[in-house]
């Protein structure tokens, strides 16, 4: 029993919410969309992310802005998993609009203002004929490198 209690307390001490590690991050995102990313918190575990850049999938080549509401869950020290939903709007040779879902993992480097994040972002684009009759796209993913503003 003492061993289980010690293990539980050790893991609890290592678990830190994302807001305890940083408040704002800004950086670059490689993937789709390719561009800049900004993330901040609204509460202890909830926040939003804005991605602005070039969208190059499903015959939607052009500039787009994505807004995502996220729930962040501390996995272990300086590492969080997050999931959320939002939408994308933009302009290309036609209007870009789709609903987004997102799941990812981020690691904030201790004592250094840098964060690495990997995410997967499937979409639902009801007006995009390139996706077929169902409108679902499963090929949006990204790697973000962000500067931490505590």
Order of helices and strands: HHEEEEEEEEEE
Shape: elongated
The overall pLDDT, averaged over residues, is 84
Strand content: over 45%
CATH topology value: Porin
CATH architecture: Beta Barrel
Provide the gyration radius in Å: 17 Å
Number of strands: 10
Largest sheet composition: 8 strands, antiparallel, barrel
Structure class: mainly beta
Give the topology.
Blueprint: H1 2-14, H2 18-21, E1 24-31, E2 34-41, E3 46-55, E4 62-76, E5 79-91, E6 95-108, E7 114-120, E8 123-124, E9 136-137, E10 141-149
Antiparallel strand pairs: 1-2, 1-10, 2-3, 3-4, 4-5, 5-6, 6-7, 6-8, 7-10, 8-9
Supply database-style keywords.
single chain; Porin; 2 helices; 10 strands
Plain-language structure description:
The protein is mostly beta strands and 150 residues long. It has helices at residues 2-14, 18-21, and strands at residues 24-31, 34-41, 46-55, 62-76, 79-91, 95-108, 114-120, 123-124, 136-137, 141-149. It has a single domain (2-149), classed as Porin. 31% of the residues are buried. Mean pLDDT is 84; it is low at 7-19.
Give a brief description.
The chain is mostly beta strands.
């Amino acid at each position: 029993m003492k061993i289980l209690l010690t293990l539980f307390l050790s893991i609890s001490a290592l678990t830190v919410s994302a807001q305890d590690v940083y408040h704002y991050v800004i950086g670059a995102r490689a993937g789709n969309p390719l561009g800049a990313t900004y993330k901040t918190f609204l509460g202890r575990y909830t926040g939003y992310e804005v991605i602005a850049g070039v969208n190059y999938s499903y015959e939607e080549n052009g500039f787009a802005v994505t807004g995502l509401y996220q729930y962040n869950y501390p996995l272990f020290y300086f590492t969080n998993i997050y999931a959320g939903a939002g939408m994308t709007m933009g302009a290309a040779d036609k209007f870009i609009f789709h609903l987004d879902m997102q799941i990812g993992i981020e690691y904030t480097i201790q004592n250094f203002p840098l964060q690495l994040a990997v995410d997967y972002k499937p979409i639902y684009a009801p007006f995009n004929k390139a996706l077929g009759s169902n409108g679902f796209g499963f090929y949006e993913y990204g790697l973000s490198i962000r500067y931490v503003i505590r």
